[in-house]
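Duplicate of earlier report; Alpha/beta fold hydrolase input re-posted below.
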Amino acid sequence: MVARSDALMMSSLAPHRRAGKGTPLVLVHGFLGGAAQWQAEIEYFSETRDVIAPDLPGFGDANELHGCDRIEAMADYVIDLLNELEIGSFELLGHSMGGMIVQAIAAKIPDRIDRLVLYGTGPLGAMPNRFETIAQSRTRLLADGVETTIRRIGATWFVDREEALGLPVLTRIGERASPEAALQAFDAMEVWDGRCSLEYLFMPTLVLWGDTDRSYRWSQIEVLWQTLPNASLAVIPGSSHAAHLEKPKLFHAILEDFLSG
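Output:
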């Protein structure tokens, strides 16, 4: 394993970023994301925690790996990395597609998860009432390519759309994804349904949502909040799907309050 100054660590199994010491906190990115999107969270939480942010196969610094066409396979990929790092119990956060992945992880190894954060996500991968259907996004990705797709879709993740200060950051990260992995991710989301597992996830869970999110609408958030046995809800006003970039101080304060509870 090689440590670098930007907190990137290259595992023989999976590229990831890691910093700090203490209770492990695992951050899982979503579609066209990467571990680099969590840099502010790594810096903030590494003062009290061992923060680990993997790059999913085909994305970010793992863009040379073959992608996965099932959410469960991505969950296994993250679990394998944590096992290789000899991580026992941990806190777990997933964003967007990453929120689906962490639900699958929680269903597979519930006894190892101390606290769970489901951020800007839902229990149904088809995403009812999304700004466009998965099929439409797939067609446009095939026609436009990854670079155009991340700029177009990424703009929907912010209240200020194309003028959002955080958009260039997400664009640079998203452009690194392999087209194959992006298409496989659409396949994985389209067929995934985690609703049957929710009632069995007893760990303390925070459902965290930006109030103008156009990808995961309130109906998805409400199902998580009302079905999970030990869930609390936090809504970040004036933010969308990338609330961690739009309202970072509030985002961190909410997470700190929950993780320290």
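The longest strand covers residues 113-119.

Merging into the original ticket.
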